Amino acid sequence: MVMSKRNPVDELLQRIADEYDELPRQLQGVATYIEQHRANIMVQRINEVADGCGVHASAVVRFAQRFGYSGYSEMQTVFRSAYTEAVTPARSYQQRIRKVIADESAPMTTAQMALRFIDASRAGLDELAGEFDSKAFDEAVDLLVKAENIYVIAVRRTFGIASYIAYALQHTEKRVHLVSGLGGMFREQIRSIGKNDVLIAISFPPYGKETLYCARVAHQHKAKVLAVTDSALGPLARDASALLKVNEGSAFAFRALTSTICLCQALFVALAYKLELKVEETSHPGEYDD
């Protein structure tokens, strides 16, 4: 079986998250900046990063060395190789396919490519199960149980997941709103969110600015934000009341969506189950009393 490897940037950010509380205050500032600007690190000079963090350049060097790099330039190379394609998707799709052809010793059959993607998806699901946070999942379901309105936002490659979860939630008694941005109306569609509502926001690097905007508005309006994303240090996690972390498998530099859709389906089923339990308890009071 061909197993997918986690993106090296994801691996680094996970290490940073694991050690974040132990970092000195200045290095915590560097960690937060790198997490929030990961798509730009590959083109930023060390002084630009230092200015953004409000620290001296030497602190950025110490940060890189803390995580095993000789200095900032070596750490930057990791971001450059991992995210050049993500920042320029229209051009990089063809580049990624060409790289697949160049990397293989012989042309692959379409079936072999399909099996590689299946393996990548399976690896992502294995990781999702292995790192599943039951407490966080319970918190997420409880938020939805208590919500008067549920708003859902995701853009570009994750929009299909938002569309699905909004469709599934329509089968409950909850009032559900898909923030589609049709006609560019993200602001208009999210402006009515209130303190008794929940926004499900789904985004991965490079983060959708529309999703981040809606999360900020929800937070400002005292609504709860349920973030589905890859890191607790990311910009989407900043305004989250509950966080579900998921890292997808990848093949040929293309990330799968299998783990995210699985997690969202599980979220809907768990919510529907709890809502039905409440109905049963209301409909049959005292049925199990002695």
Automatic annotation (TrEMBL):
Superkingdom, taxonomy of origin: Bacteria
Keyword terms: DNA-binding, Transcription, Transcription regulation
Domain HTH rpiR-type per the UniProt entry, residue ranges: 10-86
InterPro entries: Homeodomain-like_sf (IPR009057), HTH_RpiR (IPR000281), RpiR-like (IPR047640), RpiR-like_SIS (IPR035472), SIS_dom (IPR001347), SIS_dom_sf (IPR046348), WH-like_DNA-bd_sf (IPR036388)
Signal peptide: none
Domain SIS intervals: 140-285
Keyword Acetylation: no
SUPFAM superfamilies: Homeodomain-like (SSF46689), SIS domain (SSF53697)
Name recorded for this polypeptide: MurR/RpiR family transcriptional regulator
